[in-house]
Amino acid sequence: MTEILGARGLTVGYGTLAVARELELSVAPGRVLLILGPNGAGKTTTLLTLAGALRPLAGEVFLEGERVASPLHRRVAQGLAFVPDERGAITRLTVDENLRLCPGDPDRALALFPELREHRRRRAGLLSGGQQKMLALALALSGEPKVLLADELSLGLAPRLVSRLLDAVREAAGIGIGVVLVEQHAHQALEIADDVVLLAHGRVEMSGPVSEIRADLERVLAGGYMAGNGNGAGAGH
């Protein structure tokens, strides 16, 4: 299976503090890799490192088979799109102004979320939380990236909006985009994921195709795993 984004022996953290260690990750075009784990397990830190926003403490990241050590803006130029857990748009600009700055076709962005059309002249910071997430995801996908990294799209949103966003992620994979998704709504995210990595105590505890390990995952999740702390250090998300 062709790999679009991968990590080998990746250790992530801040300064000298390692949050997650020796991670082995692989994302293929058209597949959604879901990273699960409780608060503190290192999910967001891992995503930031894959994106180039943080430097790895050890190990390597590969994009289209080539080792990359470049910062985020260079990886974006190479076909990576990143939607952070907070704002993914410039809040002081209107929806239209954000769309004009996006790397792809503004009409394509609006086609992904037609709900945004009636808010084109509104400042992004005045949109609802769900509308801001739609705009951030639309901006990221408008340029038809090779790989999408998305962190907690559902944070603070109603279940209906979560489904809307996750459906858009699945549709992106359907046209060949590789996706790495960090998501707190584990059960909903599993419905659109192909592969899953479960982090605990700073390491990968379980990984594989969802179809093969879902029963084991459901047992772990039913035990309240997501409410715990993944590394005991309280650092990292």
What global shape is seen? globular
Secondary-structure-derived class: alpha/beta
Termini separation = 30 Å
Order of strands, widest sheet = 6-7-8-3-9-10
Series of secondary-structure elements, N-terminal to C-terminal: EEEHEEHEHHHEHEHEEH
Q: List the uncertain runs.
A: 229-235
Helix content: 25-40%
Biggest beta sheet attributes = 6 strands, mixed
Q: Strand share of the residues?
A: 25-35%
Q: What is the mean pLDDT?
A: 90
- Tally the helices: what do you get? 8
Count all strands and give the number.
10
Radius of gyration of CA atoms, rounded to a whole number: 17 Å
Description:
A 6-stranded mixed beta sheet has the order 6-7-8-3-9-10, sandwiched between helices. Strands 2-1-4-5 form a 4-stranded antiparallel beta sheet, with helices on one face. By secondary structure, the protein is an alpha/beta fold. The protein has helices spanning 43-51, 72-77, 95-101, 106-112, 129-142, 159-174, 186-190, 210-222, and strands spanning 5-14, 17-27, 32-36, 58-63, 66-68, 80-83, 147-151, 178-182, 195-200, 203-209. The longest helix has 16 residues, at 159-174. It has 8 helices and 10 strands. Helix 4 packs across helix 5 (129-142) and helix 5 runs parallel beside helix 6. The protein is globular and about 45 Å long. Residues 229-235 have low confidence and may be disordered.
